Recover the amino acids of this structure.
C-alpha cells in the first residue's frame, strides 16, 4: 500500500484518539456493523499487499518473496495500526511491501516498474469489488430464499461491506499524494526536476496528508467518488444479471 516513514509516535497518538472517540460513541448497531466490516477489511488489505508483492516478483524482484510476502496469509500483510484505523477511521493501510527496483528486468524502466507495482494494489481492490458484486447478484438471482434467512442476511451485508471497503481502499490509494500509491504511479509521468522537487518536500507532503486525513477532508473528497463507483458497479452488474 504505502510506506509510512513519518514518525510513528504521531500515528500512535492519532490512533489512540480515533479509537477512544469511536469506542465512546459505540452502540449495539455500530458494533454489529464493525463485525460485518472485519472480513472485508482483512480481504482488502491482504489481497492489496499480495498484489504489490506479486507484481514486483513478476517484474524480476524477489525481495517480497524472500520476506514471505508472496502469499495470501493475512498475518503476513496486516499492519496492526493500519488495520485498526481502517476499521475505526475507515482510512488505513497494510504492512508495506518492500521492493528493489534495481532487480526489475530491463524490458521497462525502474520508474515504470515502480508504477506497475504501485497500481497493482488498487487494481486488485477494484477487481475484488467486481468479484464480490457478481457473487452478490448470483445469490440474489439463484438463492433468493437464502437471503431471507438470518445467516443469508448477514452474508449479504458482509458482501456489501466488502464491496465498499475494496472500492474505498482502491480510490483512497490512487490519491496522487505521498505516501500513497497514487504518487508513485504518477511519478512515472513526471520530469526529473518534478521528481526531485517531490523528493525534497516529501516530509511536507506527509504532513499535508495527515492534515487532510485527521480533519476528514480526505474522506469528504473521496466519499462521493467511492459512492459513485460502488453504485455504478452494482447497477451495471445488476443489469447484466437482469436484477436491477
Amino acid at each position: 500500500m504505502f510506506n509510512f516513514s513519518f514518525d510513528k509516535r504521531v500515528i500512535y497518538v492519532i490512533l489512540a484518539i480515533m479509537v477512544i472517540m469511536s469506542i465512546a460513541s459505540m452502540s449495539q448497531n455500530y458494533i454489529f456493523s464493525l463485525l460485518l466490516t472485519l472480513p472485508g477489511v482483512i480481504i482488502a488489505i491482504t489481497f492489496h499487499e499480495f498484489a504489490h508483492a506479486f507484481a514486483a516478483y513478476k517484474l524480476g524482484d524477489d525481495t517480497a518473496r524472500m520476506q514471505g510476502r508472496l502469499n495470501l496469509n493475512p498475518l503476513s500483510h496486516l499492519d496492526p495500526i493500519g488495520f485498526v484505523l481502517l476499521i475505526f477511521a475507515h482510512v488505513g493501510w497494510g504492512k508495506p511491501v518492500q521492493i528493489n527496483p534495481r532487480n526489475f528486468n530491463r524490458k521497462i524502466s525502474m520508474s515504470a516498474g515502480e508504477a506497475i507495482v504501485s497500481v497493482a494494489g488498487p487494481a486488485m481492490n477494484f477487481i475484488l469489488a467486481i468479484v464480490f458484486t457478481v457473487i452478490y447478484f448470483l445469490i440474489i438471482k439463484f438463492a433468493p430464499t437464502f437471503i431471507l434467512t438470518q445467516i443469508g442476511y448477514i452474508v449479504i451485508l458482509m458482501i456489501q461491506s466488502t464491496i465498499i471497503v475494496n472500492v474505498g481502499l482502491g480510490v483512497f490509494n490512487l490519491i496522487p499524494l505521498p505516501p500513497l500509491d497514487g504518487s508513485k504511479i504518477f511519478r512515472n509521468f513526471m520530469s526529473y526536476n518534478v521528481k526531485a522537487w517531490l523528493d525534497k518536500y516529501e516530509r511536507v507532503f506527509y504532513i499535508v496528508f495527515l492534515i487532510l486525513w485527521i480533519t476528514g477532508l480526505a474522506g469528504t473528497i473521496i466519499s462521493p467518488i467511492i459512492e459513485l463507483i460502488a453504485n455504478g458497479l452494482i447497477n451495471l452488474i445488476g443489469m447484466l444479471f437482469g436484477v436491477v
About this structure: The chain has a mean pLDDT of 85. The chain has one domain: 8-240. The longest helix spans residues 110-142.
